Structure formats: C-alpha cells, structure tokens
Amino acid sequence: MQSYSEKVVVVTGAASGIGRALAQQLSMQGANLALSDVNMEALEETASILRGTGKVTLQKLDVADRGAWEAYAEQVKADHGQVDMIINNAGVALSETVERMSYEDMEWIVNINFWGVVYGTKSFLPLLKERPESAIVNVSSIFGIIALPTQAAYNATKFAVRGFTESLRQELKGTNVFVTTVHPGGIKTNIVRNGRMKTSMTGDNQTLEQQAKHFEKIAKTTPAQAADTILEGVKGGKRRILIGSDARLMDRIQRLFPVRYSDIFGWALKKLG
C-alpha cells in the first residue's frame, strides 16, 4: 500500500496512545477513518484533534464482543462503502505470577488482546478481499517474541497474535491482502496505568503508580514515532515491524540466544530494579 489517501482505515484502541497517533497521521495523509474504543469520551477527543479532511466515524466498541464486531463491520461498510485496512491495535496489560493470577484476569486479557484481534480480522477480511489492495495490521508486542516473569498472560496473548497473524499471512500469500505483525517495545502510553498490574517483573510489590513511573523511565519511543514506523512499514511491505531500539535489541538477543536470553534479561531486570 503506497498511499493512504482516500483509503478507508479501521483503527481500534484509537482513544489514546498508538491508536490516537495512527489516527492523526492517517488523517493528515488523506485517509477516511473508522475509529473505535471502549472510552467514547477520549475517542471524541481524538476526533477533535484530527486535521485532515477525510470522513471520520466513531464507534464505542468492546473488542472482546464478537457480536459487536460483526455489527461494526456492517456499519463501517454502510458508512464508508469500503474498507482498505484494519489496524487491530486495542490491547491491555496484566502483570502477575502464574501462581497468583486469577482465571478472571487471564480471561479478561485473552478476550481483549487475542480474541479482539481474531474477531477484527475475521469480521473485516471479506471486505478487505473486495479491494484491489488492502492490509491487515495486527499489533503484538516485543513480548510476543521474548517472555519475562509476571508477564505469562500478556506473553501468551502477544505470542498468540504473532502466531495467528504469521499463519494468516501465509494463507493470504498471492492475494490482494497484505498482512503484518507489529512488535512495539516500550512506548510512552498509559498501558501500565490502565492495566491490571499486580506484581512487577522484578517480583516487588510495587504500587501501580510506582510501576507506571518505572515504565515511563524506560519507555523511550513516543506514540507518534510508533505510528510513523507502522505506517512506513506497511508502505514498505514489511511482514514484521519492530518499533523502537529496545525492541530491535531484544529481538536480536533472542535470535542469538533463543534459550538463554532469559538469563540475560533476568540480570538486566535486577539492575533496573
């Protein structure tokens, strides 16, 4: 996809963070936008700062609700007449040991981070296949490549998004639908503040505020930089998009030490703690 001008792009989790930055950049590049989030007030704030002239529609959407997705796809088709790209960006965080983790928390994050991507992909795939060129952009994480303590549930969902998307890409090879997986490192968003952060990665009983402040220190990439990397990656046909120097470094270490990388990161976590 060489241009976003006059394309219809669906973005989930568009009320803040990477989703909002994507909406801003796509708007400036002439796209028509179908934006969704569970936070309608913040989603309206996103719409208010867009500077493009393309059509923008807003929808309160719980990505964990399959029926809502199916109705949403029909609504976007009715509102825009076509869909050229979907960016399954909505996601949440959970930090807790496997032993202490509740099934409710596990189901919560799986339903949003994994099933939300599956529902979005399947609901819009028929519309995407109607277009001469289209794209599916599924946001995983660097934690879809490496695993760390207290991140078992988050890792499980992001590894699942990666596997699902890479398989889908092979199924759609040779078609008009381009498929890519996005792996952000630390991005300056509110994902920690909005998450269920029960135990820190170092095992300390830090408060949510302490964990959020620690994350802000190590998260070096802005949402705008992340959005730019994603959109340029899609234009360039990249099948895996790594965001941030930290993500690129961790990916490289994992490739060099596919089993022992955990020892390296364990040492680094103690230093950071």
From TrEMBL:
Gene3D superfamilies: NAD(P)-binding Rossmann-like Domain (3.40.50.720)
Domain of life: Bacteria
Keyword presence, Cytoplasm: no
Membrane-spanning ranges: none
Annotated coiled-coil segments of the chain: none
GO molecular function, one term: oxidoreductase activity
Pfam families (alphabetical): adh_short (PF00106)
GO CC annotations on file: membrane
UniProt similarity note: Belongs to the short-chain dehydrogenases/reductases (SDR) family.
Name listed for the protein in its UniProt record: NADP-dependent 3-hydroxy acid dehydrogenase YdfG
Lineage: Bacteria, Pseudomonadati, Pseudomonadota, Gammaproteobacteria, Oceanospirillales
